[in-house]
Amino acid sequence: MSSLREGPATVVRREDYAAPAYWIDTVDLCFDLDPAKTRVLNKMRLRRNPVVPAQALRLDGEELNVARVLVNGAGCSFKIDGNQLVLESLPEGHEPFDLEIFTICVPEKNTQLMGLYVSQGTFFTQCEAEGFRRITYFLDRPDVMASYTVTLRADKSKYPVLLSNGNLVDEGPLPDGRHFAKWVDPHKKPCYLFALVAGQLVAREQHIISRSGGKHQLQVYVRPGDMDKTEHAMNSLIASVAWDEARFGLPLDLERFMIVATSDFNMGAMENKGLNIFNTKYVLANAATATDTDFANIESVVGHEYFHNWTGNRVTCRDWFQLSLKEGLTVFRDQEFSMDLCAEPSARAVKRIEDVRVLRTAQFPEDAGPMAHPVRPDSYAEINNFYTVTVYEKGAEVVRMMQTLVGRDGFAAGMKLYFERHDGQAVTCDDFAQAIADANPDSDLARLLPQFKRWYSQAGTPHVQAEGVYDADARSYTLTLSQSCLPTPGQALKEPFVIPVSLGLLSADGQQLPLQLAHWTHAEEGSRTLVLTQASESFTFVNLDSAPVPSLLRGFSAPVVLECHYTDAQLLTLLASDPDPFNRWEAGQRLALRRALLAILNEGPVTTEPLDGAFIGAMREVLRHPQLDAAFKELVLTLPSETYIAEQLAEVDPQRVHAVREAMREQLASALQDDWVWAFETHKDNGAYKPDPIGTGRRALAGLALGMLCVAARHTGDAVWPGKAYQHFKNASNMTDRFNALSALVVSEHALAREALTRFHALFRDEALVLDKWFALQAGAPDRNGNVLPAVRKLMTHPDFNIKNPNRARSVIFSYCSANPGAFHRTDAAGYLFWSERVMELDAFNPQVAARLARALDRWKKLAEPYRGAAREAIARVAAKPDLSNDVREVVTRALA
Ligand code: PHE
Ligand code: ZN
Question: Locate the Peptidase M1 alanyl aminopeptidase C-terminal domain: which residues (predicted)?
């Protein structure tokens, strides 16, 4: 993190990587914690790196006051050069030496939430990526790994709990009501994994004995009022420990593993060694305050941070360009964890569809916009801007393709080899790919490794065109797959990727056909994965009695855009019968998208009936289907988002996109009215609340049905369903049902919505995470007469609003600017003005959150006039501000380039 507000930002390049000139072997830190003046004594043992030419020691530090520097116990001269402390006359030779640095920082003034800060009277740290330098002078880079001993001293009544990484080895009283705790971390680590917490906290505790017999103490620390919301996080942690051991043979390597929740956090959570720090949003849950989505997110984030203990902490990144080494791999692992916890295969498919939906609505636009970058970026001005959906979600898809190419067992063998080779090291994405390939020498991955690694070096989403020709005489079907990828900033030409395409063939009446490539001796049942490596390749299938319907890219086997000229009839066949649930869902999305695009591209006013009988009938079939799960039905019956639709257009009129999608929704609501009634009535009662896939799916479908019934009622003026929604809202026994009912009223703009919102606020005035939902729902509400922006400005004056709290800022500002396109893109440009004001306001105290908001206008070049011109002006207004952070400057500069 750097809020360098002087001079042009320096660009860091991957090719400039050089090993550090010094190593730090041990660190002994002693903190005297005080919000206004915290004293940090840092005693290090260093030595020169023998393979690097002798040079001065340059330590990173930011917003620190230096009181003393001693080398081997004696005072020494140093200079401060920008954000570095420079020591030029150090002992010669390769003997280790001691360096002691005493500095002072001011946690209560730390609004960026990087380094040491105070949240609700409790001290927290956040060091990834470059926050440790805000605590003490250090070689703040991940390839410098040291052993840490940490002593914390603080007032005992205000800070009874003192935590850091590793094991507690000593604690006791000190004079003047103070006390201390001493922690030793048994594992070497890079400084970005350092953490401390000090405050009034309580813990849910559980002792477990792992598969391999190890005894461990698990703890979830929260504020005293939140104990009743910790059970799910603890259960998720226990499940994570068991899963990593069962699936990958990776045990917990610590006696004690702690999670601590804070309500002031820039991101989701952080994998500090043995002391994970979490945004409360990803820890706290009970049936009354959290939705099914919250429960699922907690499970996956707890898993994610826990899995980092091996993929990130035991083996870490050589430099920050390798971020996806830990993040892509760990997202892949948390996705697999959530899927493996599903008992039913259909629930696994639901999870896969949800993950792909995130990839396509967030990562594909990133890959097509001004911030496009490879999974392993080549340069950055501010590393915090590269914690992106590309590094995380596309990175996970790259790992998933490796697993597809070597098989599940082959991948597990590759992971084993990766740890055998690299445990305790700081390595690169190349090292990972090499280990997976080397463990599978006969695989396609090993054969194609240099080409496969283009997924790491080339940005942009590949497009795959599929064309099939049936030859009735030869009884054969030739499928031609071609790939291309548009230029991205700094990368004009792309070389072909290695693209695994899983596929099957169906007959016109939906039977799965045997697959036999021309040169095979026999046919195979079901799916097969072809590997596309050339710009264009043809595959001929034989022994086919009629033209097949191809089911391509099953399970979304590669992160590409598949272009295939399906007829409606073919898509209807896939929707009705594809044994691959992902493609079944995808067929429905394609049918809907096709209708949306037609209505958008038509001349004249938006039609009120974009949908036809065939589509509506197919949706009814799915909704009423006797075998399909509720969760799957809910996904199929949900139309593609406005963001996803917009991405398919060369030029976007956001108001028209919004109007067309609304018209589709209204038509689907009215045309299926009886079916929605049936769906609601048969799915609304679920007994005792349990956030499992079955219950979650049933509540999701009942919620969708209720929302649709309120939409339909808006047109007929009928008061029955809004009335039922209000009753349902009042009587709900869990947050999912309650919130779905509330949002049905808000989205249909029924008069009862006001009353319900007031009641909801009164019920949950002391629950910060629930109030976030309350704010977000209003900022994300449909806009009819430009009413949302004034409502958002008013919400910002609400006594519960606090822009300094990232969750609350996101609930109002991001919900409006990033998640409500129909209200944000106004012909009078007032939405963009609001955006520019908020980016600049946030940047003054929290550049990371500001830079995320800055990305809301990433796709401005695609907008039609008058939006496009107005958006450029708004971005230029931000760019013209002289004292911007590096974070925001990089985003707006790239947007205008
Ligand atoms: N490393 C964290 C994760 O993905 C994310 C994070 C990055 C949190 C930077 C805080 C700061 O699990
Ligand atoms: Zn992570």
Answer: 568-897
